[in-house]
Amino acid sequence: QVQLVESGGGxxxxxxxxxxxxxxxxxxxSIYAMAWFRRVPGKQRELVAVxxxxxxxxxxxxxxxxxxxxxxxxKNTVFLQMNSLKPDDTGVYYCHADVVPRxxxxxxxxxxxxxxxxxxx
Length: 121
Description:
The chain is 0% helix and 59% strand. The protein contains no helices and eleven strands. Strands 2, 4, 5, 6, 9, 10 and 11 form a seven-stranded mixed beta sheet that branches. The mean pLDDT is 96.
């Protein structure tokens, strides 16, 4: 089994910062891309940022220059540093990892349970 556990969500004021963390655990052979998605009220889940293998990073236009994704491969952990937060950033943030489990060596995606981020004064 592979589990992704997010932490770091909460309440922030506009212009403030939050740092999300997501750790993958379980029977893992390897991890490829790790990413953050979010579901904003009234919209479908959208990609926020993705960190691929080889250091490739992509951001949604709406967060470029404000959010930074990084990862600690030794700890199977991905982070999302969110600065200059806006009320429009409010939503549930989900971690996603492209994993090869040791149980069957079948590469597939896994999701975390989500963490709430609320930006409000």
